[in-house]
Amino acid sequence: MRSDPNGSGKTGPGPVAKATEPGPVASGGSNEAADLARARRQLLSGGSESTPGARGGHGRRLDAPALRHALVDLHEFWLTTKGAEVGIKRDGGFALVAVGGLGRRELLPYSDLDLVLLHDDMDPAVVSQVADKLWYPLWDAHIKLDHSVRTIPQALQVASTDITAALGMLEVRHIVGDVELSNLLISGVRRQWRTDIRNRFDELIAQTRSRWERSGEIAHRAEPDLKSGRGGLRDVQLLNALSIAQLTDGMPGLGPESPGGGLALAHRRLLDVRTELHRVAGRPRDQLRAQDADEIGAALRIGDRFDLARMLSDAARTISYSVDVGVRTAGNALPRRGLARLRRPPVRRPLDEGVVEHAGEVVLARDARPSKDPGLVMRVAAASATTGMPMSASTLNRLADHAPELREPWPKEALNDLLVLLGSGSRAVAAIEALDRTGLWGRLLPEWGAVRDLPPRDAVHTWTVDRHLVETAAYASGFTTRVARPDLLMLGALLHDIGKGRGGDHSVVGAELAIQIGKRLGLWPSDIATLTAMVRHHLLLPQTATRRDLDDPETVERVVEALGGDGVLLELLHALAEADSLATGPGVWGDWKSSLIGELVRRCRLIMAGENLPAPDPLDPEHVALAASGGVHVALNPADSPHTYVVTVIAPDERGLLSKAAGVLALHSLRVYSASLGSSGDSAVNSFVVSPRFGAPPQAGLLRQELIRALAGELNLLDMLTGKEDEARESQRVAAVEERGEAAVPVLYAQAPPRVIWFDTAAPGEVILELRAEDRLGLLCRLAAAFDTCGADVRWARVTTLGSSVVDSFCLDLGGHDTRASRQEVERAILGVVPLPKPKKQEGAGPE
Question: What is the pTM of this model?
Answer without folding.
Answer: 0.88
